[in-house]
Design brief:
90 residues; alpha+beta; Alpha-Beta Plaits; five-stranded mixed beta sheet; 2 helices; 37% strand; globular; EC 3.6.1.7; hydrolase; Acylphosphatase
């Protein structure tokens, strides 16, 4: 199962990507997290549904210092990523 999330609010410059990677690794999720030029954070996550649900719940608040306004989620086609990584801003 795979989900693509877009998180908006005060989510850049507050350790959001690092914290997302830490949680995703703890949950054995694969995929990536990256900043977008429009100020959002993009998260592609692959794994089992319970772990994806836990990540989705956490994204609603994020790490200390973040202020999340909205989280959108789309089901996407599984790509088979290995590990969870920070990617370049787009």
């Amino acid at each position: 199962m795979a989900n693509l999330f877009f998180v908006s609010g005060v989510v850049q410059g507050v350790g959001f990507r690092w914290a997302t990677c830490q949680l995703a690794e703890e949950l054995n999720l694969a995929g990536y997290v990256r900043n977008r030029l429009d100020g959002r954070v993009e998260v592609w996550a692959e794994g089992d549904s319970a772990d994806l649900a836990e990540l989705a719940h956490w994204l609603e608040t994020g790490p200390d210092g973040a202020h999340v306004d909205t989280v959108s989620k789309q089901k996407v086609e599984f790509k088979g990523y290995n590990g969870f990584h920070e990617m370049m801003t787009i």
